Amino acid sequence: MMNYMNDLNGLYEKALNLEFLTAEEGLFLFKEAPLTNLMHVADELRKKQVPHGKVSWQIDRNVNTTNVCIANCKFCNFYRIPGHAEAYITTMDTYREKIQETLKWGGDQLLLQGGHHPDLGLKYYTDTFSAIKAEFPEIRLHTLGPPEVAHIAKLEKMTHHDVLSALKAAGMDSLPGAGAEILVDRVRRLVSNGKCGAQEWLDVMAAAHQLNITSSATMMFGHVETLEERFEHLIKIREVQSRKPETANGFLAFIPWTFQDVDTLLTKIRGVQNLTTGEEYIRMIAISRIMLPNIKNIQASWLTVGKKVAQICLHAGANDFGSIMLEENVVSAAGAPHRFTYKSMQDAIREAGFEPQLRNQEYKWRELPSDIEEQVINY
Ligand code: SF4
Question: Dihedral sign, CA of 291, 297, 302, 303?
Fold first, then answer.
């Protein structure tokens, strides 16, 4: 394989041939390529990888199983320690009410996640998923994340494979790429020491892919990581995807998003602020498209960067706008202020010059329900 270090045109060509750029090559492009060139290369790659040219989006609701957590992540304002007055475990009555609303508002999925509760083992999750599926077989469960799976495996002294098999049998449809932050242990020790390490996150995903559980991958950046560590993260994700069984989807999407810093411990104690500019985010989207030629969908995080920057990302390699998130409590608790409705989401995509296409978690098209109701409550 040729090494095109310090040769921008050679690197553009290598990227356009869908070859794997090294971390050094990617970093050189990220730092040195003019923004318009980087966007152009990523846009060409989007057209190759997603030739239908539409921008997909989704309607789902982020519901939390529990806010009790012992992981103590320094960027998280959502969790409560065990025994706290505001601690909760969501009941079936609440799930029922939230699912009925989700269906009424056109949604087809719960993104179901929560904290690392010290007393909730595998049975709690399998019982919950089975009960939801028994009552609402049409609702898809995009649930947990590698750190929660690793936590359950430790509590139960089981393998990732066996935990995931049981969760899948109980109704887990797909595994979100949550809790990746930056997949480098130096960073994880500083921001999320109580969560699984980088290798375990990757191992859980590899086990999910072996079981043909579709997943996504994320990156939360803009805190204590170096640029080199962002590229280490991208390459680790790419390597796991390269090892997935041919018939499995593996990572169907990659979603980079920025650290939200309002009132977090990371900001209050360490003075860490998210200084990511709009241009830097657009570069990260473009470089994600370039560095991950084996992941088809790149999602722009409108929730953390806002509508305008996310719209530009659609011309910089992104082909997906994610969900309107009928409910979201975790990232919002650290300051993400942006909101979309099913109407404004489609308007934003059209304004950016693309045709919006509603999809499900497997990136299969959905018809927008004709009797959809506008969400009327604020949570
Ligand atoms: S991000 Fe998740 S694991 Fe970390 S403290 Fe918050 S709820 Fe717990």
Answer: negative
pLDDT at 314 over 70: yes
| Average of per-residue pLDDT across 285-300 | 98
**pLDDT, tens digit, for every residue of 155-176?**
999 999 999 999 999 999 999 9
Nearest to residue 225, comparing CAs of 176, 192, 269, 196? 192
Q: Is ligand 1 within 6 A of the CB of residue 69?
A: yes
Close Cβ partners of 214 (under 8 Å, ≥ 6 residues apart): 173, 174, 175, 248, 249, 250, 252, 361, 362
For ligand 1, atom 2, name the residue with the nearest CA.
115
> Residue-wise over 34-57: b if at least 16 C-beta within 10 A, else e?
eeeebbbbbbebbeebbeeebbbb
Longest dimension (CA), the chain: 60
User: For residue 260, how far is its CA from the centre of ligand 1 (angstroms)?
Assistant: 14
Q: How far is the CA of 331 from the centre of ligand 1 (A)?
A: 11
Q: Is the shortest distance between the CB of 322 and ligand 1 below 6 Å? A: no
Task: Report the separation in Å between the CA atom of 68 and the middle of ligand 1, taken as the mean of its atom positions.
Answer: 9
Residue 272 has pLDDT above 70, yes or no: yes
User: Can you list the domains of the chain with their CATH numbers?
Assistant: 20-39+65-293 (3.20.20.70)
68 Cβ inside 6 Å of ligand 1: no
328 within 8 A of 27, measured Cβ to Cβ: no
| Nearest alpha carbon, ligand 1 atom 6 | 76
From CA 62, how far away is CA 211, in angstroms rounded? 24
**Relative to the CA of 148, which ligand 1 atom is closest?**
3
pTM above 0.90, yes or no: yes
Q: Tell whether the model's pLDDT for residue 229 goes beyond 70.
A: yes
Q: How many CB atoms neighbour CB 257 within 10 A?
A: 23
* 87 Cβ closer than 6 Å to some ligand 1 atom: no
